[in-house]
């Protein structure tokens, strides 16, 4: 098993709830994604691609401590023929993910596509109709370019800063999209991690290494049956 991490080249600050660092992370996108996507996988292996924002990228922790790397370790320990690619990008919104998706998919065939986006949309209070549209477009693009790919949608939740109605609709949109598209759903990526101070860094958003270990367990429960 080979683990490829774009987060190793992404040390820019997260725009999750902080719009000021978005330009820096966007500028880093081509180089970072190239590092993750262009490295060749063994011919006998298939790819599990994690497509997300700073939580997937592993902002604030070492690349090998981020949950995609931990999934890679689990795959390796079981001698499964998969390469794990971390295509997480700090500060990414659903619109940004939609714009770079085709380029990322063109780098390798993907067997399992884990979609973890939307948190930055919610923390910025972006229109949820746009978030739905962008996530749907990402799903449609994956299915058009790679019909055999299994898609996993990672649900997110946000604090009620934008109002309880907005937060409730944000949470529900993941279940709605998963049902509509018959996707495998992780109801809440940060289950047993979100909101727990000791499992998050000082910003209260990004998991610590211990938090990432719990996230990896949550993700593995869903991904393992697809392999």
UniProtKB/TrEMBL annotation:
The record's section on Gene3D superfamilies has: SGNH hydrolase
Classification via Pfam families: Lipase_GDSL_2
Is the keyword NAD in the record?
A: no
Top-rank lineage group of the source organism: Bacteria
Q: Which segment of the chain is annotated as a signal peptide? A: 1-24
Q: Which residue intervals define the domain SGNH hydrolase-type esterase in the entry?
A: 50-214
> Sorted alphabetically, which keywords does the UniProt record give?
Signal
Does this UniProt record's set of keywords contain Signal? yes
The family database entries (PANTHER family) matched by this protein are listed as:
THIOESTERASE 1/PROTEASE 1/LYSOPHOSPHOLIPASE L1, THIOESTERASE 1_PROTEASE 1_LYSOPHOSPHOLIPASE L1
- This one is known as Arylesterase
Q: What is the lineage of its organism?
A: Bacteria, Pseudomonadati, Bacteroidota, Cytophagia, Cytophagales
């Amino acid at each position: 098993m080979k683990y490829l991490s774009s987060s190793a080249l992404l040390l820019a600050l997260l725009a999750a709830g902080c719009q000021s660092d978005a330009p820096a992370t966007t500028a880093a996108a081509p180089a970072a994604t190239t590092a993750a996507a262009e490295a060749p996988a063994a011919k006998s292996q298939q790819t599990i691609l994690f497509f997300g924002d700073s939580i997937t990228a592993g902002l604030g922790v070492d690349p090998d401590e981020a949950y995609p790397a931990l999934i890679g370790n689990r795959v390796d320990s079981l001698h499964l023929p998969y390469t794990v690619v971390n295509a997480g990008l700090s500060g990414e919104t659903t619109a940004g993910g939609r714009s770079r998706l085709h380029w990322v998919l063109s780098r390798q065939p993907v067997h399992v596509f884990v979609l973890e986006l939307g948190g930055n949309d919610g923390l910025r209070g972006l229109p949820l109709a746009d978030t739905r549209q962008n996530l749907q477009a990402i799903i449609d693009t994956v299915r058009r370019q790679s019909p055999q790919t299994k898609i996993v949608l990672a649900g997110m939740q946000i604090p009620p800063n934008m109002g309880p109605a907005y937060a409730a609709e944000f949470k529900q949109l993941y279940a709605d999209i998963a049902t509509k598209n018959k996707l495998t759903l992780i109801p809440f990526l940060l289950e047993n991690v979100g909101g727990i101070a000791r499992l998050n860094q000082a910003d209260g958003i990004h998991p610590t290494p211990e938090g990432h270990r719990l996230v990896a367990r949550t993700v593995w429960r869903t991904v393992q049956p697809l392999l």
